[in-house]
Amino acid sequence: MQVSVKYDDVYNVLEPLRGIKLRGSIQGPPLSKLPLREIVEKGLGHAVVDSEEYRGSRIVGVKITEKLYLACHFGTEEPDDFCVALEAEDAWKRVADAANKLSRLMKESYTLTLSAILHALQGIISGEEEEVEEISDPDQVIEELLTWLPEYVAVTE
To answer: What region does 24 belong to: left with phi over 0, alpha with psi -120 to 50, or beta?
Structure first.
């Protein structure tokens, strides 16, 4: 089953991410021995604002301050653990809302779409040499997102 979505529609859905500052990422297994999932779930459990699990991925949103959030991805079957620090008013809500709208647009699960967005944000951070990267245009996210979308999703003009 091939799903086609228009580039402009994806751009519009990701527009609310504009202005979110990407403050860095923290790696867990397999890239690091840091027990990131345990730290987040046990040490920061009181601050968890959202938690989703589906097909080998667990996504956790953690509110650190009014404008600082950790968006975490954990592989439940194979290690793929990382957190991205997001700074902006309602940063987690903006990412979650974008994932929800994009999942409906692609006719795909919310958690798979949220996972793809988090991988894209991590890709932006690891691909930049600047310490602080701000999403200034949804194109930045789309460029990385295309790597993480399922093969059967085509973004067309």
So the answer is: left
Q: How far apart are CA 115 and CA 53, in angstroms?
A: 10
Tokens of 29: 């297994």
Q: Give the amino acid at 141.
A: V
Task: Convert the pLDDT of each residue in 29-85 to its tens digit.
Answer: 998 999 999 999 999 999 999 999 988 899 999 999 999 999 999 999 999 999 999
Distance of CA 36 to the CA centre of its chain: 16
Cβ neighbours, 10 Å, residue 42:
10
